[in-house]
Amino acid sequence: MSSSNNAIAVELWIADRAVLPVENSLGGSIHRNYDLLLRHRLHIVGEVQLPVHHCLLALPGVRRDLLTRVISHPQALAQCELTLNAMGLNVAREAFDDTAAAAEHVAAAGLRDTAAIASSRAAELYGLQVLADGIQDDAGNVTRFVMLAREPIIPRTDRPFKTSIVFAHDREGTSVLFKVLSAFAFRDISLTKIESRPHRHRPIRLVDDANVGTAKHFEYMFYIDFQASMAEVRAQNALSEIQEFTSFLRVLGSYPMDMTPWEYSSSGQTAGDTSSS
Hints:
Converts the prephenate produced from the shikimate-chorismate pathway into phenylalanine. By secondary structure, the protein is of the alpha+beta class.
């Protein structure tokens, strides 16, 4: 299922949770998934950061030299580009909604000229063979996922929490963004992420100037992650201040931070981790 379908499944009570990748240490933010956070009335209830471990999968008996196409999620294709070229796979690339869907498509359609980039678990699920293991270009490649649910969790103060918000403003210039950042800085709240996306319903603002005519500017939504729980007074006060000079503000979730220790081995695998993403 695509990320959008996963979110819809939670909204319709078909599933209890959805897992959404939002950023990668090499590819950066996954912009369309940030748009999904705003489009669906779900709450972020957790996060996890996982090492990227990609495999090249094909139908049993298919040889690498017979491949004419490789399919996967755009991020996975980008994360394996150098390795694929080094393997001599200078073949067509095609984007899919996610890595598992690409593997499922190869199996269901019986494509003997096509390989998918996905996890070894996907190979097990869909009866594919692993042509090459660990084909990601960078051993230190990590993807951050957030978990979505219909109801928010109760924020706490007895462990590190992160809070995600999105806001918009209808004023010109940079003063509003400066005021937002100052509201956090004044209370010693650390920001871990700032992301801007074009305003979906009001993408362009027209500004009339008698001297130069009409100027066109993009309108943006701003996503911010900060290290504080909404159970903390400083976080509550910061958002109360921000509401005074923003036209829209929504808390996407206040949730426990992923505090899993990282220790990369020389092979690029995380010590103690046996899963693939």
